[in-house]
């Protein structure tokens, strides 16, 4: 999963434009470019890992909560109500 997420993010045109527009603001022309690029890249990588781990933890928690009977009951009620509403709207507008 991690490798596919990395490839998707790396090949996303919005990510490329972001780096081209945002990162040069933090590059000092007097200092070596390679060192600065490595530091900025490592910082972004660490923050991205923290973000992805946070989303993963949230997804695990949500998945566990969805197995609770009370949550399933309300999920089924809300889903059924939405389907009834969509059917009603289809009947009225047709």
TrEMBL record:
**Where would one find the signal peptide in this protein?**
none
A Pfam family reported for this protein in Swiss-Prot or TrEMBL: LysE
* Nucleotide-binding listed as a keyword: no
Coiled-coil ranges per UniProt: none
An example Gene Ontology molecular-function term: amino acid transmembrane transporter activity
Which terms are listed as keywords in the entry? Cell membrane, Membrane, Transmembrane, Transmembrane helix
Q: How does it sit in the membrane?
A: Multi-pass membrane protein
GO CC terms, sorted: plasma membrane
List the transmembrane segments: 38-62, 74-92
Principal localization reads membrane
Q: What is this protein called?
A: LysE family translocator
Give the species this sequence originates from.
SAR324 cluster bacterium
């Amino acid at each position: 999963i991690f490798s596919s997420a990395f490839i998707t993010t790396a090949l996303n045109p919005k990510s490329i434009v972001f780096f081209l527009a945002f990162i040069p603001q933090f590059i000092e022309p007097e200092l070596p470019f390679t060192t600065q690029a490595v530091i900025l890249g490592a910082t972004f990588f660490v923050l991205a890992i923290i973000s992805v781990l946070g989303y993963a933890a949230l997804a695990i928690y949500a998945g566990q909560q969805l197995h609770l009977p009370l949550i399933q009951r309300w999920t089924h009620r809300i889903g059924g109500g939405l389907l009834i509403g969509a059917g009603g709207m289809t009947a009225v507008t047709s």
